[in-house]
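Let's study a protein:

===
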Amino acid sequence: MIRRLWHPLGGWHSQFLWRLLGWTAVQFALIKAIQPSFAVFLAHHHWSFHVLWFAAAVICIAGLRPILLAVVAVASVCCFGEVLKYKTYTLGFPAAEWALQLPVFLLSLAIITVIGVRYRRCAEAGIDARRRAMDAEVDWGITRLLRVTVVVAMSWAAVHKLNVDFFNPGVSCLTMLTAQLADWWGFPQGWIFSWLRPVHIVILEAAVPILLLAAPRVGILLALFLGLLFGSLGATRFAGLIVVMAFAFLDHADLAFIRAGLRRYRVLMGVTIVAAIVVSFLSYTGPRRWFQFGLYHGLLTFLAWCAFFALLRHRIGLVAATDSVEGVPITGSHLSLRLIVGLAVAFNLVNGFTPYLGIKYQYSFAMLSNLRVDTARWNSFVFPRWLRVVDRDPFIDALRVEATWPEGLTPEDAPGCVEALDRIETSRMVPRVFLAYLRLLWARDIRVALVIEYGGERYEYLDEAARIDLRIKLNGLPHEPLFQGIVTAEGPQRCMH
């Protein structure tokens, strides 16, 4: 039994993709490990996170193995549970990463389990033929799962941006994106991004799934370009997952050329990867630690080489697949595999639609989109307000705010307090974020008289004695981790998501 659980599964395609998926998890852990130290990293993260990245590291080395995938899937579920409970806030809270990761881990495990049960008698005669057939089915299931995930995710990312405020240059996340790229990486914003408009980003994102389906190698190049843009802003793991999944659209002949190219030009590849990392280091002037960008740009350079080899197959015979073997025909005709892939399609479609139903916002592929679909504001061009099935949203609105500063305390002596008051006055927040801003003020003995509205009810906390009641009230409200933490109370929606 142990021997079978450790046996490698899938052809080179599955092994290639899962090693890359494993690296995205290791990269995320390495980023956390240096902030601020490895000792703090070990002590302040939940055990499931350490199990997740360690198993992912073994996958990078050993490839796809049933026991490793099972460990990664279970650890990922536990890790996500801790994120939702906010017991381990340092795990991060990206907008769509878990929506990509969890289904892939769990459904990949389901695919391998179903196939393993079907071929449980492979120890009998014809084991080699059965093993090849089993690996072919794993390849079919894994690649189709990743294909539908990236297609649906990028389709939703484009659809969510079809809203009033994303097309408003004054508040659009695109404005923030171009300014941040120019500031962090020294790009001359005036002439490089002068042509870029919100409609162009929507077209580019929508073109990724279309091209992946119609012209896969061109779609992969476009995914690499967008991954470079978004990853260079800090979303390195999310962008990395998208780009890696796009490589599931390659076929066996492409992979044969990639394998031969990786072997033949490994020295040149290594030099260019190191060069890309050095250029990344010399160019970066942003506030975050450069380490995560160095790892990410190295990964993108490697993937760019892989895409280059795949393109060469169709034009130039520089990279001949002399040592490759023909893959076993993959039909994917078994109903169970098609049901699992169909489940992935259904999950991703429904998950992306949940913001418009009022069920949740986070992990719905609404990333950098300015999207507002709550009771106070609805800015979508595509979906009407009547689709919302939930009557109330989880936000607190401050109707009246009066702050009393202690004698002698100035804004310079209390960094962040002026901003906290501004956010309380001008934003809608979930209870967790609202309380965090109040604690920042209370820590400086700034007294705040409040009239707030929550769930259609009005509450008054107008004196210092009410602070305890307010704290108890806020602690007793749901944390609502599946919604935005903060949105704009009135006017256009600022880029906060």
